[in-house]
Amino acid sequence: MSVDYSKTPLESIYGENCFSESVMKQRLPKSVFKEFKKVQVGEIDLSLDVAEVIASAMKDWAIEKGATHYTHWFQPLTGLTAEKHDSFISPESDGTILMEFSGKELIQGEPDASSFPNGGLRATFEARGYTAWDTGSPAFLKADNTGLTLTIPTAFVSYTGEALDKKTPLLRSMDAISTQAMRILKVLGNTTSKRVMSSVGPEQEYFLIDKEYFQARPDIKLTGRTVFGTMSAKGQEMDDHYFGVIKDRVADFMRDLNTELWKLGISAKTQHNEVAPNQFELAPIYASANVATDANQLTMEMMKKIADKHNLACLLHEKPFAGINGNGKHNNWSIATDDGINLLNPGETPHDNAQFLLFTVATIKAVDVYAPILRASAASPGNDHRLGANEAPPAVISIFLGDQLTNILEKMAAGKPVEALDGKMMEIGATTLPKLPMDMTDRNRTSPFAFTGNKFEFRMVGSTQSVAGPNVVLNTAVASILDEFAERLEKASDVNAEIQKIICETYSAHERVIFNGNGYSGEWLVEAEKRGLPNLTSTVAALPVYIEKSSVELFGKYNVLNKEELESRVDIYLENYSKQINIEAGVALEMANRLIFPVVSEFAASIADTILSIKSVVPTADTAAQESLLDNLNGQMECMLKTGIALGKEIEAALELEDDLLAQAKAYREKVFPAMEDLRVCADALEKITDKQLWPYPSYEDMLFNL
Ligand code: ADP
Ligand code: MG
C-alpha cells in the first residue's frame, strides 16, 4: 500500500481520485465548464443539458479509473455518512450492457433511505427522501473491497424540501452569509467579488491503540470510550508526548493515511503527537465550509480504515480515557470572497481596516447574541465529558481577541484616540490599523472562541462531530448581524462615519463576551456569571436552545432551518443522547457482572485458599495482609453489586419515559450517568487490587503505552 515518493512524486498522485476543477477543465467543453463555474458561484441555475455533459464526463473518467458503480453520498443526522451504490450498467436486449450515467442521475437521487432518523419530518410530509448534488464539492472515487465507486456529494431532503441531513442547512447558511456579506462589500465599494465563502479548517484529534486491545474492550468497541479503567501510574504529566518524536508504528499509519487522503484531493498538512499518550492530530489546509465538512467526514472514515489495516484502532471519541485529555476538533473559520479577500484579515490599507473591523465586530456580536446556539452546536454525549472539564474550554462561550486588538477596540469604543501605523491617529477607512501580529505569542489555548490573526478558532467542537452544525450556526448568526449592519450602511450618507459608529456601538454593547484570561480557571466562571454569560453545562441543557423563539426566528429568517426542521433535529439529538448513554450503561453492567465479578470472585477465593493453606502449614502465621485484601475485595464487590442494581433501576426508569424525549434525556443525564459513575468507582477500585494477570480486559497502561 505504501507509496515510494522518490519514484512516484506526490504531485502525480495528489487528487488522482478526485473529479477536481482541473479534471473538469480538461474533460469538459469550454462553454460547459464556464457555465458550471457560474452555477457554482450562484449566478445561474444548473441546466439539465450541462448536467448531462458533466455526468457523461464524470462517468468516463470514473470508468477509465476502474469504477463500476456510483453513489449519492450524504450526511444524515446520525452524524455519519451514507451511501448506496448503483452500477453504471444498462442491459441491452442482445445480452450486452451499456455503461450509463445521466444528468438526471447526477442531479438527483432517490435512495429511499427511510430508516434514517428524521424526527417525524418524513412521516408528516412524504415518505421518500431525495438526494441533490452539491455542485460546490467535488465528486471523488471511493475505494473499498467492492471496488471503486464514483461518489457524488449530495444534500438529503424530503419530497417537499425539508432538510433531513447536515449538508442542506450548511449550504443554506453559506448562501445567507454570502448574501449579507456581499451587501456590506458593495457599500465598501467592492465591485469585483461575486460571492463570499465561509472557509473552514478543522483540526482533528484522535487516539491510536492496538487493535487487539480494542477487541478485548467491549466498552470501547461498542461506545468508543472506556466506561471503566484506572489511570496508569504515568499519565500525561511529563508533557513528553506533545510534539514528541512520532513512533514508527504511528508514522507508518500516518504515511498511509496521508497518501489515501492526498489521492482524494484532501490536503492533509499537519500531523503531530498531542498532549495525551497515544494521542495525535491531523490538520488539513482550510477549504470552503461544505468541502471542508465532506473532507473531514472522509478523514475520520479513513483514519479508522487505515488504522485497521495497521492492526490499530483509531478512537475519535471525545473522551476515550478518564484522567487524560480527550479529543477535540478545532474549527478554524473565516469568510473570504471568491476572489481571495479574507474579510477577517487586518490588511494593509485604510480600506482594509474598515472592512476588517466591521466583520470582526459583526462576529463578536453574533457570538455574544447567539452564544447559546453556538454552544448547542457543540453538544454531544461525548463532548459532555470535555466542556467544562479541565482540558477543553468551559461551556461558557467567550472570545479571545488578544491584547492588541482588544486594546484598539476598547479605545475606539470609548472614543479615545488610537495611534495608527502611519503615526496618525486612527480613523476608520482613512488610516491603517496598527499591525496585528499574525502568529500571536500569547495565543490562548483556553478560550472557546479565539481570534488567531486572520480567522476565528471555535474550539468547542467534539472530535466525532460533523463540522456542519457549528458552521451552520456561525454562518447564520454572523449573516444576521451583517444584515443589520448593511441596513444601516446602505442608508448612510457618510459611510466611514457610520462604520465608525457601528464599530464603537457594537463593541461597547458586546464587550462582555471578550475574555483574554485563563478560561480554565474557576474565577472565570464566577466572572462570566457576573457578566451574564450563559453557561449551559450539558447536552441536555443546551439542545432545547435550538427551538427557543430567537433561534427559530434566526434560522427561519435566513431560510436555513424552519421550525419543524429545528424541532425534528432536537428530537433526534435528544433521542441519540439517551440511546448513547443507555448503551454505555448497558455495557458497564455487562462488564461488571460478567467480566469483573467472576474474575474477582475467583481471585478472592484464591486468597482465601492461600490463607487456609498458609495456616495449615504455619498455624501461628500472621495472614492479616491477605485477610485485609480479602476483606477489601469483598467490600468492593458488594459495592459493585449494589451500585449495579441501582444503575439497572435507573435505566429501567429512564426507559419508561420514552414518550417524552427531553424528560428521558434528562433522566439519562441526571440519574443514569451518575449511577454509572458510582459503579465505576467500585469497579476501578477492584482493578487496583486484583491480580493483573487475571483482569479480564486490557488496562490503561496496556492501551496507552504500548505502541
Ligand atoms: P494550530 O494548531 O496552531 O491552531 P494548525 O496548523 O494545526 O494550527 O491548524 C490551523 C488550521 O486553520 C488549518 O486547518 C489551517 O488551514 C486553518 N486555517 C488557516 N487559515 C484559515 C482561514 N483563513 N480560514 C479558515 N481556516 C484557516
Ligand atoms: Mg493544531
Automatic annotation (TrEMBL):
Residues 68-161 form the GS beta-grasp domain. InterPro entries: Gln-synt_C, Gln_synt_N, Gln_synth/guanido_kin_cat_dom, Gln_synth_cat_dom, Gln_synth_gly_rich_site, GS_Type-3, GSIII_N. It comes from the Bacteria. One of its GO terms (biological process) is glutamine biosynthetic process. SUPFAM superfamilies: Glutamine synthetase/guanido kinase. Residues 166-596 form the GS catalytic domain. GO terms for molecular function: glutamine synthetase activity. PROSITE patterns: GLNA_ATP (PS00181), GS_BETA_GRASP (PS51986), GS_CATALYTIC (PS51987). Belongs to the glutamine synthetase family. This is Glutamine synthetase type III. It comes from Oceanispirochaeta crateris. The lineage of its organism: Bacteria, Pseudomonadati, Spirochaetota, Spirochaetia, Spirochaetales.
